[in-house]
What does this fold into?
Amino acid sequence: MLISSLLLMTTILSTHATIQTKSIEYTQDGVTLEGYLAYDDSLPGKRPGVLVVHQWLGLTHYEKHRAEMLAQLGYVAFCADIYGKNQRPKDVSEAGALATKFKTDRTLLRARANAGLDVLRQQPNVDPQKLAAIGYCFGGTTVIELARSGADLGGVVSFHGGLDSPTPADGKNIKCKVLALAGADDPFQKPDDLAAFESEMRDNKVDWQIAFYGGAVHAFTQPNPGFVNAGAKYNEKADKRSWQAMKDFFAEIF
Amino acid sequence: MLISSLLLMTTILSTHATIQTKSIEYTQDGVTLEGYLAYDDSLPGKRPGVLVVHQWLGLTHYEKHRAEMLAQLGYVAFCADIYGKNQRPKDVSEAGALATKFKTDRTLLRARANAGLDVLRQQPNVDPQKLAAIGYCFGGTTVIELARSGADLGGVVSFHGGLDSPTPADGKNIKCKVLALAGADDPFQKPDDLAAFESEMRDNKVDWQIAFYGGAVHAFTQPNPGFVNAGAKYNEKADKRSWQAMKDFFAEIF
It folds into this structure.
């Protein structure tokens, strides 16, 4: 009887809880960027904040949906915009050009990621002592770069991101925990890059982990990665397992 | 008020729940073995069953404690005895001799593991459709061999176990999910063995995963692995993370 009443009350509360979302314009070095904020306004006080960094297609419905999922978990989530307002690739050709621009200018990439983190940190309902960043593909690379920039946050999670670094010595700047979630059969993850990443983490005594999901290739969390072939494909099991691994990581750091 | 009452009730229930334990003698091909059962007798109906396979030191307090932890999670846990009743190594020399005996006779190792699984399956409070096996070091190797024997169970979890196989073609027999949890700096995990294991899983389309914990060496879950040096040492973070990974795995398969 007690249990029934409580369950009913919880259900009502859940129904009343609404996820608030809004676009936020901000700038980095004079360039206008447009991110997306999501949070549950029924939760009191300051909440942990999670930055979400987009895949190579730019900030799409996909990342916004992840931010809403994070809001449902009780976090304040902010999708960074790395490319710039209205810089939304129409096809894989434009996506490739933009991703390459930032992957070959890691200083700019780090600056854009930090600009997004600053917006998140400044939200009135965010606890600035409890921050993390997650990213997908290109965004997975970006959040590791955010860590390499020495950003002050609890941890970063890379979902099928490239782990390569043109400046492995920057591993010494990493202050946060690092979790990499990878497809065991991802053809875009070069063994040499992986070995270099592991050495970078090890040499700099980073608190790091990596999980490999058998049968998963690149973009395993994304129903629409821009292209689908044998090398990039959604994998429901790996999607769910990696999301759970992220939740466990957050439970540890927040 | 409702919440307070419910929490109080839960506390009382927890206090009343007691973990029952007992030794069980059984045989394999005429050899007497002595295992250890643990379960929560306050739980109704049939429960998922988890086999626990010991490290090279044989069935010790360590594995019994893990079985009790599993019982507290609501599972019926049974520690297998691979070596035989009273075969309890006094030192690392005896442990090495016994572990080597079984690691070089995988047919016998599989038979002993299956004998333990049979005992677990036959417990009146075990759901025979919901079985898993976990193992530590030598036991981690053993549970993978159990899978390679074609045993009918939902999944196996190897904690810092050797993943090598003298008969990689036996990967075709694996019917269950496989989760390997490894120290990223384990000097006993040879890169060639790891690569062969991955190929075995991949070639046979096994549902497999592997997680590596940075900074962790061999025996990272064990405060007393028989010896402690730079290559084998307890690591609290990796211990907790791997236990959580196991719980997530069980949540998926049970």
In short: Residues 155 and 177 of chain A are 4 Å apart (CA to CA). Residues 1-13 of chain A have pLDDT under 50 and may be disordered.
